[in-house]
Structure formats: structure tokens, C-alpha cells
Design goal:
The structure holds 2 protein chains of 2 kinds.
Chain A (H helix, E strand, L loop, with lengths): L2 E7 L12 H10 L4 E6 L12 H10 L3 E3 L10 H10 L5 E2 L2 H4 L6 H13 L3 E4 L19 H10 L5 E4 L3 H8 L4 H4 L2 E4 L10 H8 L5 E2 L10 H8 L5 H15 L4
Parallel strand pairs in A: 1-2, 2-3, 4-5, 5-6, 6-7, 7-8
Helix pairs in contact in A: 6-7
Chain B lengths: L3 E5 L11 H15 L3 E4 L16 H17 L4 E6 L5 H13 L4 E4 L11 H10 L3 E3 L17 H10 L5 E3 L8 H8 L5 E4 L9 H9 L4 E2 L6 H14 L2 H15 L9
Parallel strand pairs in B: 1-2, 2-3, 3-4, 4-5, 5-6, 6-7, 7-8
């Protein structure tokens, strides 16, 4: 089984990207043998109220059981607790908050309250380091990238918080992992989409140094083609058990809502 | 199906990488798994150890090219080389191309020692034409400012050079290698002697379709550069996107067409 924890639906504001419809995402999943995808409403991330895309997301996921909603929560808006409760009611896979997109301090008071609330309701909190390579962004896209220090601060802020961080590279993972206690680091999962394979072998090194249990399969599609993450695993010398952990086992064991 | 990686690098001992042996072994191992028939490599001097990667000294140029030639001899069935030159040393660059071609190299690598539209590149292009060698040129897609450590060129500047040398084939490096690839695609269409290499860590949705539309499949070449998993991902995506005959063009036939006859085993 292969679960992609890092997918989006809907148009990207900074470039024309094909394959953003539910049908196209499902076709891409079929093409690369992805059984389940965790999905966020992409344009909503850039709206003043990012949660306005959540109802469409819930409706879409209800129609396609392979899609699991990851709704946006903006802890700077007054109704955020209702949005979080709604996510619980809809059995969301996780909730996401990208502080750079939302104009929030990444480890500031709003994020810490959200982190504690996610921990309390048993939902993982998802954040992206970036959505696009900083060298190619639209001139108006000045969204700051998530910094390792913010992730370290957040994971320390609540002992029950589970974080899923997407689009992180090797240096980011190492800085957070080895800058945290084992207990803290054990509550963070990293998607593999931005970690380099051979000949740099960043993912192979991280599997050895950080541990296979910390990684989950993710693609970033449709902003990125999903074939790359599968190829990355095909180039790794993992045992079938290790590969199964990355592809779905770690999600099923540790990231299901509690 | 043959698969030619037109943008590969191996690191020499005298570089800044202590893990150079492991890196090179990893490239070969991954290549076997992907099905790479031939890695066409360039060595940019000492990659920063005794002169800057993108501004290699004459001594480092010779050292790097000798390293590539040694790799060719060590792996005659898997590795071919580009002669890397620095056009700021014009006479040396021209002589080095001739030396490396005589020793078996099949192309020229220009990195970022001088802007692509600079007249100093003309003698290098003339020697490329004389020997029938394609030029792989490092490109920053849509450069909006100078970047430290290199005098990077973008697609507009490379096309100016290509217009001056219509009988030379230019491989515009790593369309997925950073910067705005849309900026490049907007300019390259009319320049029939400019080919795009698909390497780079970028795997943006829509990029490959846009490349096909901008220049057609007969001007695309597969490559990996520093990330082989992104190369394999793009190859797999192209398997879905293109008919088999067009996929073969991108995978190897276009390369065979522009490199000197006999460069690859199937020639």
C-alpha cells in the first residue's frame, strides 16, 4: 500500500499547473500506484481566510474514498476552533497550517495554541517548508520558508503534538532531528519529496542516521510530478519491511487520528 | 532502450568532496538501476578546491579533463566526456578542446566563466564547429540578477550565441536546474540548434509538457545532473506522456544525432 501524504487540488496562483482537478489527481495516483492521498485545497492557502476551501475539500473527498482531507486551519482567525472541530468531525487525516502563507509567526502564540489544540484532539499538524524552489518563484511570491528553529520550538511546545513536515531537505531534517530530544524527534514525520537521492544519497543517509520510522511517502503533486518520489524509493536499498514503513506503515502506525 | 545521460558529473580526488569515491560509485550504481547506457560527464576543474568551480584555472581545467579522460578509459562502455574550458583563457581553451577531442572526448562544456553572448566564446564555438562537437552550456533559467560564484547566462544570452554559430549544436543545461524555466522556453523555439537537457532537481508539474510544446521532442535530451532520482522520475513521466518512438528520441536518438559519429556503442 502506498499513501501520499502531500498532495493538492485546485489552481496554483503563481503558475498554470496541469492536473489540479480531482479526476486528474486520481488518474495520476493510478498511474504511479498510489492507493491513498492526503489532500489540501491549494488555492485556499493563498486566501485571506484559507479555511474557505475546506468545505469543497470535504465534499470532494467524500466522493472519492482514496482522498483524505487535510483542511487548512488559520489560528489567527476567530473561528479557528470551529474549523478544527469540523476537521475532527470529518475525520480529517491531519490539519495544515503554513504560517508563511498565512502571515503568522511560525512558532508564535497562535501557532503554539493551535499545536496544543491539535495535540488535544489527536490530529497531526502538517506544515510545508516551501511549495516551490526559491530560485524560480514568481516575483510577487515572497512567502518566507519555514525555518528549522520554528519546528524545533513547536515540537517542544506540547508533549503530545505530532508534526508532519513536507518539502524539507536533508539539512533541514538533520537540524531539527539532532536539535531535538529523541522523544521530540519521535513525534515528527518527514515526507520524502524534497530529499535528494543518488548520487548525493541524502535520503539513504537520513534513513541510516535518523531512522526509517521518521519518513513518509509524499510527492507534492500536482506541483511536482509524482514519479520522482517513487523513483527515489526504487533507487534506495531498503528491505521490503523498511520500504513498507515509508510507503504506508509509518502513517498507519503513528499518524492516524487518535 | 538506450539511455544517454547528457549531463553527468563525477568528482575527482582533488576536489572539496571527501566522499568523491562513494559519490562516483553511487552514480554508476544508480545508472545501472535506471538503465543509463552512457554518462556524458564534465569535470569543472577541481570543483572549487584550487580555483572556483565556475571559474576554473588553466591548471585545474587540465586536471579535470584528464580526470574525465581517465574515467572514459576506466569505463569505456559507460562514460564519455566533455572538454571543460574557460573562455577567459582563449588560446588555452581552443587548444584544450583539440587535445581532448584527440583523446576521445565528444563535446565541450562551458559553465559560467563568461556570459554566453560574450565574443570571447566565439573562438570556442569555432573550434566546436571544426571538430563537430556540441556545446553543453550551464544556464540559469531566467536570471534576474547575478548570482555569487558564477557569471551565469540565461536562455536569451545562449540563443544570441547560437544565432552567431548556426552550425554548432548547443545543449541548454538543466531546464529543471533552477530559475524560471518558462523564461527559457519563451525564447528558445526559433533556435533550431539549441537543445534542452531535462536534468536538474526541478520536477514541476507541467514543465515537461511545456518543453515538448516549446521545442518539440526532437530537441529534448534526457539528463540527470546532480539528482538522478529526478531524472528517472522525468523519464517515467515521459513514458506516460510520449509515444515510444518519441521517447526514444529524448532518451538517446537526439543525442546520437548531435554528438560526433561513433560516440556511442549503437552508432
Amino acid at each position: 500500500m502506498r499513501i501520499d501524504v502531500n498532495t493538492f487540488l485546485g489552481a496554483y496562483p503563481y503558475a498554470r499547473v496541469p492536473g489540479t482537478s480531482p479526476a486528474a489527481l486520481l488518474a495520476a495516483m493510478s498511474r504511479v500506484a498510489i492507493d491513498e492521498a492526503w489532500v489540501t485545497h491549494l488555492p485556499g492557502l493563498f486566501w485571506r481566510d484559507p479555511t474557505e476551501g475546506n468545505s469543497w475539500l470535504y465534499d470532494t473527498c467524500r466522493a472519492s474514498p482514496q482522498l483524505q482531507p487535510v483542511p487548512a486551519v488559520h489560528p489567527g482567525l476567530a473561528h479557528w476552533q470551529d474549523v478544527l472541530n469540523e476537521a475532527v468531525e470529518h475525520r480529517a487525516a491531519a490539519v495544515r497550517c503554513d504560517p508563511g502563507c498565512f502571515g503568522l509567526e511560525p512558532a508564535g502564540p497562535e501557532l503554539r495554541v493551535l499545536a496544543a489544540s491539535c495535540a488535544a484532539v489527536g490530529l497531526p499538524l502538517m506544515m510545508a517548508v516551501r511549495l516551490e524552489d526559491g530560485r524560480q518563484r514568481h516575483p510577487n511570491d515572497v512567502t518566507p520558508e519555514l525555518q528549522p528553529a520554528a519546528v524545533r520550538a513547536l515540537i517542544r511546545s506540547d508533549a503530545d503534538l505530532r508534526l508532519v513536515v513536507t518539502h524539507a531537505d536533508r539539512a533541514f531534517v538533520e537540524e531539527v532531528h539532532f536539535g531535538s530530544t529523541p522523544a521530540e524527534a519521535g513525534r515528527i514525520w518527514w515526507d520524502i519529496c524534497w530529499i535528494w537521492g543518488p548520487p548525493e544519497d541524502h535520503l539513504a543517509i537520513l534513513v541510516e542516521t535518523v531512522g526509517v520510522e521518521r519518513f513518509v511517502f509524499g510527492t507534492g503533486q500536482p506541483l511536482r510530478i509524482p514519479e520522482t518520489s517513487v523513483a527515489k524509493l526504487d533507487l534506495l536499498d531498503l528491505s521490503p519491511e523498511q520500504r513498507a514503513r515509508v510507503e504506508s506503515g509509518n502513517v498507519l502506525d503513528a499518524l492516524r487520528p487518535r | 532502450m538506450m539511455l544517454i545521460d547528457v549531463h553527468a558529473h563525477f568528482f575527482p580526488e582533488r576536489s572539496l568532496r571527501a566522499d568523491w569515491r562513494a559519490y562516483n560509485a553511487s552514480r554508476l550504481k544508480a545508472g545501472e538501476r535506471i538503465g543509463v547506457t552512457m554518462h556524458v560527464t564534465s569535470t569543472l576543474g577541481t570543483f572549487g578546491r584550487t580555483s572556483p568551480t565556475y571559474f576554473p584555472s588553466r591548471a585545474d581545467i587540465v586536471y579535470g579533463n584528464d580526470f574525465s579522460l581517465a574515467l572514459e578509459r576506466q569505463h569505456p562502455d559507460r562514460i564519455r566526456g566533455y572538454a571543460c574550458v574557460n573562455p577567459n583563457y582563449t588560446d588555452h581553451a581552443v587548444a584544450e578542446v583539440a587535445r581532448c577531442r584527440a583523446a576521445g572526448m565528444i563535446g565541450i562544456k562551458l559553465a559560467a566563466s563568461r556570459r554566453a553572448n560574450d565574443p570571447l566564446l566565439d573562438p570556442v564555438c569555432e573550434v566546436a564547429q571544426k571538430h563537430g562537437l556540441p556545446i553543453l552550456h550551464h544556464i540559469w533559467q531566467g536570471r534576474r540578477r547575478d548570482w555569487p560564484g558564477q557569471e551565469a547566462s540565461d536562455g536569451v544570452e545562449l540563443c544570441q550565441l547560437a544565432r552567431r554559430h548556426p552550425d554548432v549544436s548547443f545543449i541548454l543545461a538543466h531546464i529543471g536546474g533552477g530559475g524560471d524555466w518558462r523564461h527559457t522556453l519563451a525564447v528558445v523555439g526559433p533556435y533550431r540548434n539549441v537543445y534542452l537537457d531535462l536534468s536538474g532537481s526541478g520536477v514541476d508539474g507541467g514543465m515537461l509538457e511545456a518543453c515538448c510544446k516549446a521545442v518539440g521532442v526532437h530537441r529534448l535530451m534526457w539528463g540527470s545532473d546532480m539528482t538522478m532520482e529526478t531524472g528517472w522520475g522525468k523519464l517515467r513521466y515521459l513514458e506516460h506522456l510520449l509515444p515510444a518512438a518519441e521517447l526514444e528520441s529524448v532518451a538517446w536518438k537526439n543525442a546520437v544525432r548531435i554528438f560526433p559519429p561513433g560516440s556511442f556503442p549503437s552508432d
